[in-house]
Amino acid sequence: MILKRSVKPSKRRAVSKATIRGLPPITLPNPRFTRGRSIYAALKNRKTVRSIGKKKISMQMLSNLLWAAGGVNRKKGPFGVRGRTAASASNSQEIDLYVALAEGVYIYEASSHKLISVLGGDLRALAIGPGQGNSGAKAPVRLIYIVNIDKFRMAGFQEPGLYNPEIQKSYYYVDTGLIAENVYLFAASQGLATWFHNCNRAALAKKLNLRSGQRALFGQTVGYPNDE
Ligand SMILES: Cc1cc2nc3c(=O)[nH]c(=O)nc-3n(C[C@H](O)[C@H](O)[C@H](O)COP(=O)(O)O)c2cc1C
pLDDT per residue over 54-86, tens digit each? Predict the structure, then answer.
């Protein structure tokens, strides 16, 4: 994969400490949708494919994938913040999409459409649950769904239910599923293979230095179907 990296230091943000341990940010090309099956054909072809090869996906494909998963699709969304391709409870956008590549783990920052480094090194093996075998082990991309529960508390998100842990849980699992289905449909439309699965929650929490309000929930492998 050819990486187009920004040389400018990343702006200060919540992940800045982790960024120091990681790699420069990656500026993704603008999403471009010139090819792909119709939504009907994508729905018809949507399925879990566990046999995924090591063939890399291009930067443009990665950009399109992440935008489809949860990119910004309108400047003005509900509650005075941007709108995203996936709905979320009270538009709280509490699911962060971490992207595990061979060279390191990044957070997809939808507002700038960039990948912000979290950690260098290959953590793709932790983005799948223990005991799931070697299928897709060399796939180029493993997404990790990480909830940031603190985002339910942000000003503007006043739904009383959001402060109940059980309700919160139901919301963040639904919101994860909505992103995951975007990925499934995008993959089906582009001839990619994808597989939504568990992840090694404890190991990821440790390696990624997750705060108490953050939890690793699931992983999703993406690449090309393994025809070998
Ligand atoms: C919440 C959830 C958790 C899943 N976890 C796993 C998993 O840990 N391992 C796995 O192989 N597949 C997992 N899957 C994939 C399902 O087994 C798969 O979607 C289901 O068998 C239907 O197949 P289809 O996606 O091809 O229609 C999970 C799916 C969901 C929605």
Answer: 999 999 999 999 999 999 999 999 988 999 999
Number of domains in the chain: 1
- State how far the Cα of 47 lies from the Cα of 49, in Å rounded to an integer: 6
* 198 pocket-lining for ligand 1 (C-beta < 6 Å): yes
Within-domain flag for 228 = no
Q: How far apart are CA 25 and CA 2, in angstroms?
A: 14
Ligand 1 site, residue 152, Cβ cutoff 6 A: no
Is 5 touching ligand 1 by the criterion CB < 6 Å?
A: no
CA–CA gap between residue 228 and residue 40 (Å, rounded): 29
CATH of residue 62's domain is 3.40.109.10
Q: Is 48 touching ligand 1 by the criterion CB < 6 Å?
A: yes
**Ligand 1 atom with least separation from CA of 129:** 8
- Cα–Cα distance measured from residue 109 to residue 16, given in angstroms and rounded to the nearest whole number: 13
Once rounded to an integer, what is the mean pLDDT over residues 188-198?
Answer: 97
Report whether residue 196 contacts ligand 1, using a CB cutoff of 6 Å: yes
67 within some domain: yes
Indicate whether 24 belongs to any domain: yes
